[in-house]
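JOB MANIFEST
job_type = single_chain_structure
chain_count = 1
residues = 420
[input]
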Amino acid sequence: MTAGPKRFRISNAARASVRRLAAAVPMAVALAATPAFAVSIELKDVAPDRVERQRAWANGRTPLPNTPDVGQTATRLTEKGMQLGASLLIRIFKSESELELWMEKDGRYELFATYPICHWSGTVGPKQREGDKQTPEGFYTITSRQLHHVGRWPKSLNLGFPNAYDQALNRDGSYILVHGGCSSVGCFAMTNPVISEVYELASAALRGGQRHIQAHVFPFRMTAANLAKNKTSEWAGFWANLSEGYDSFEKTRRPPRVSVCDNRYLFQDDTTTGPLEAGGPSPLAVCGRTAAAIRARDKSALLVPLQQPQPAAALLSPEAPSPILSGAAMSPLPSASLADLNVQTGSADLSYELVPNLNPPPLPRTANGRVAGEPLPCDWGLASCRKYAALRNKRGSRLAKLGGGSKGLRTALSAARSAR
């Protein structure tokens, strides 16, 4: 008698596993048959065009569209009748992601190049505090001290945020740069080839005698249509104020003289004729009330007078009168502009002072008339730099009491050794 086939008993748990596996197979087959798509990048408040430019840069698809031939700078200068070392003006438009470089030619500024901004962070609207990832808006100046030579971005321009306007509104932040690459947190990233050209033209202008390069940063091109489209924004009033400076340059093709008073920018058209004064003073000055507000915010923020230098202690005194700006370089604003602010002619509030834009203030002199130290190796806008300056000035005063110079230093060292 032949034995029949053996039968195996399958548990209920095993049957359930088999059923789950059978159900999963069709799903896996369907997924395998579905074509793969690239993962989309979605960042809050970041426009798709900025994301696409970052993708292009990461994949080596550069230069970006509409980038000038930065390898032919000298040729392009010759074609436009411009010279290396001529004075510059920088304009930045955030919504359009464009940076314009204007150069002085025959007493007026002409557009040399428009570069695409590879990336900037945040949205339209001003930067208000450290870490908000916003890019600033307003009128800034760049000096030779704001050309960066080392660090992550060895060729970059420090815009000088916060300026006097920002400081009066208690806005803070630091190291807002125009730099290379295509990533940014509060800065404007231009790609390395573009920033190399911008940096070289800026450094040549400063070497050629221009003391301050104006940098105008706008949320968008300040046309009537764009202002009307954004009239319901919380920043509509601020943008209307910025548009006054935009209109001044559009009209004269010369950078306006910019002042700050009562939380507003004030502008004077530069209607002078003849060559531009490359070595003129900084375009940004503040009226007495704004100067007092900045002093109240940070009593260690020294305001530098445009004309005769004063001791640092006198500048810090709230009773110290504000120096009057006079002459063609920066005359007081016309009464028609000041009337809107209810400023009385002849009052202390009508005087204007020059505010350093990340430049160190003049060092106080010691009792023997020597300067307490060399120019600061850091940015005066940082609290750590001001603390360092205070410690160094204290050391200078101590040396002055001991006789100053190397003899005083030797005396101080001897006293320190004796105290051990």
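[summary]
The radius of gyration is 30 Å.
The first helix runs from residue 12 to 33.
exit_status = 0
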